[in-house]
Amino acid sequence: MGFKAWSINDLAISLNAIPLDGGGYGEDEVMSVEWTEDWYTKYTGADGEVTRVRTNNFGATVTLNYAQTADANDRLSAILNADLLLPNGAGAGVFNARDLQGRLVLASPRAWVMGPPPITLGKTVQVFAWKIDLADASGSFFGGR
């Protein structure tokens, strides 16, 4: 068994070649991924015969959590506003999240900011949760370190 270490600073994130890493994250969870549906489902007939069905849906929603003071909020807002001005979804682009010291790669050739985050302002720094839709993350790799 070797020694392994993790640092959030080793996570490189970008959308449309615009970097979204470099700090300013929420204080705990930085990124979460929720798959649109399982990549495979099971069909069991009345006689018990089992068939495995590939759904071919490799979509996912990534949530990125930034402190309200983070520069990434400006970048994501600019990406969203530019997307609204471009015709036929031209604002969608490549999403990448990669552990630079490990083997985790989350990638989609077509991704977009779903909309502005819910915003709450108060006495302390708040977290803005940005949702990014990934059309096809099938080329991702979920390795460790």
Task: Explain what this protein looks like in three dimensions.
The model has no long low-confidence stretch (mean pLDDT 94). The protein has 1 helix and 10 strands; from the N terminus they run ββββββαββββ. It has 145 residues and is mainly beta. It has one domain: Elongation Factor Tu (Ef-tu), domain 3 (Beta Barrel). Strands 1, 2, 3, 6, 7, 8, 9 and 10 form an 8-stranded antiparallel sheet that branches. A two-stranded antiparallel ribbon has the order 4-5. The relative contact order is 0.24. A hairpin with a 5-residue loop joins β4 and β5. It starts with 10 loop residues before the first strand and ends with a strand. It is globular, with a radius of gyration of 18 Å.
Keywords:
Elongation Factor Tu (Ef-tu), domain 3; 1 helix; 39% strand; mainly beta; single chain
